[in-house]
């Protein structure tokens, strides 16, 4: 037989085979999707499993399957994932977090994605490695919805969340979740601010970033236990870390942090934003030492700002102003542009000397 003819026959057979395979795959996909959209749970499970085995479940569902069929697939995947023994089903659930929900574009709702997130919330604690890996997935929908699911799971995963504080891609997100759980998670955070953990950083920028992020996490708690581990960083060599420590202590507003805040406010070389935060916090702490520092700050020439525009004010005040107004005067000297009531703005100009 002519070799050329043989080649042509082989090419024709390959084309026929390719077309046949395509048609067969389409037929299989359609029949299996029909099972997923059926009324019997056993058929739904059979359809989902068949599409998973072929590695085409997500693509098949996104190829025009109705919303109800996609919701059924999510419910079936959740059932398959229960017990923590079917990581393939859980991975498919994660993929469903990026369902486009095209039917709900006008109403701006996401029923399929929301259903997938709820399913992940219910079974995600059984797939520790997969759920935390998804929390930093390159796909924004998977990452964000997984983090929402983790926050909804909350306390049962607090130890696992704390373990991820060493991961720069997850540190801030895990800190937010731990803070939302409550102050009993502070002991899980503190070890990452200790020397053993910090000494593992070889690059100064990475070290500073970790310190700043961890201090920011502590600043989300308003209990004394959060202030103590932040105090040493007031003297950090990096000015950005020092500023983060002052801001954290200011947010915590616990008396334990008052000495450091007093030092920050009293230091003319400190960062202006940090001094502002310190002034606000000291006004809230309102210990005698804090009040004295605020009073002294009013006479600090380094804090003076240009005089405000003239205002039509009432008669000068003759009594010593409350601490809220004294704190506001400090903030004015720090050039903080916070909205004020007219009478307070007048008060700053008409207050008698403080003694």
Briefly summarize what is shown.
The chain is mainly α. The protein has helices spanning 3-36, 41-53, 57-61, 67-81, 87-95, 111-123, 128-134, 140-153, 158-163, 171-181, 186-189, 195-198, 204-218, 224-227, 239-252, 258-266, 272-285, 288-297, 323-333, 342-350. 62% of the residues lie in helices and 0% in strands.
Distance between the termini: 115 Å
Low-confidence stretches: 304-321, 335-355
Task: Please bin the fraction of helical residues.
Answer: 55-70%
Structural class computed from helices and strand pairing: mainly alpha
Which word captures the global form?
A: elongated
Characterize the biggest β-sheet.
Answer: none
Number of helices: 20
Average pLDDT figure: 83
Count of beta strands: 0
Beta-strand fraction estimate:
under 5%
Order of helices and strands: HHHHHHHHHHHHHHHHHHHH
Rg computed from alpha carbons, rounded to a whole number of angstroms = 31 Å
Describe what this molecule looks like in 3D.
The chain has 355 residues and is mainly alpha-helical. The chain has a domain at 1-153. The protein is 62% helix and 0% strand. It has 20 helices and no strands. The chain has helices spanning 3-36, 41-53, 57-61, 67-81, 87-95, 111-123, 128-134, 140-153, 158-163, 171-181, 186-189, 195-198, 204-218, 224-227, 239-252, 258-266, 272-285, 288-297, 323-333, 342-350. The radius of gyration is 31 Å and the shape is elongated. It starts with a helix and ends in a 5-residue tail after the last helix. Residues 304-321 and 335-355 have low confidence and may be disordered.
């Amino acid at each position: 037989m002519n070799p050329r003819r043989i080649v042509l026959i082989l090419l024709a057979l390959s084309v026929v085979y390719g077309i046949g395979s395509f048609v067969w795959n389409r037929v299989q996909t359609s029949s299996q999707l029909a099972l997923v959209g059926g009324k019997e749970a056993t058929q739904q499970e059979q359809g989902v499993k068949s599409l998973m085995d072929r590695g085409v479940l997500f693509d098949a569902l996104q190829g025009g399957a109705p919303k109800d069929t996609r919701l059924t697939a999510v419910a079936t995947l959740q059932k398959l994932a229960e017990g923590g023994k079917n990581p393939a089903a859980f991975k498919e659930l994660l993929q469903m977090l990026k369902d486009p929900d095209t039917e709900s574009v006008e109403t701006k709702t996401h029923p399929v994605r929301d259903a997938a997130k709820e399913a992940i919330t219910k079974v995600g604690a059984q797939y520790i490695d997969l759920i935390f890996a998804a929390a930093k997935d390159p796909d924004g929908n998977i990452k964000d919805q997984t983090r929402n699911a983790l926050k909804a799971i909350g306390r049962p995963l607090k130890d696992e969340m704390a373990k991820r504080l060493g991961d720069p891609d997850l540190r801030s997100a895990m800190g937010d979740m731990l803070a939302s759980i409550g102050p009993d998670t502070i002991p899980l955070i503190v070890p990452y601010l200790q020397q053993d953990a910090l000494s593992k950083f070889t690059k100064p920028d990475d070290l500073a970033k970790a310190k700043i992020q961890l201090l920011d996490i502590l600043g989300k708690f308003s209990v004394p236990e959060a202030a103590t581990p932040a105090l040493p960083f007031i003297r950090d060599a990096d000015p950005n870390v020092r500023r983060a420590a002052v801001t954290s202590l200011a947010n915590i507003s616990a008396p334990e942090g008052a000495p450091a805040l007093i030092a920050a406010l009293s230091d003319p070389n400190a960062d202006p934003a940090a001094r502002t935060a310190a002034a606000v916090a000291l006004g809230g702490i309102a210990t005698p030492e804090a009040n004295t520092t605020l009073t002294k700050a009013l006479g600090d020439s380094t804090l003076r700002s240009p005089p405000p525009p003239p205002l039509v004010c009432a008669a000068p005040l003759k009594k010593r102003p409350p601490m809220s107004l004294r704190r506001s005067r400090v903030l004015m000297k720090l050039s903080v542009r916070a909205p004020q009531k007219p009478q307070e703005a007048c008060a700053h100009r008409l207050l008698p000397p403080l003694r």
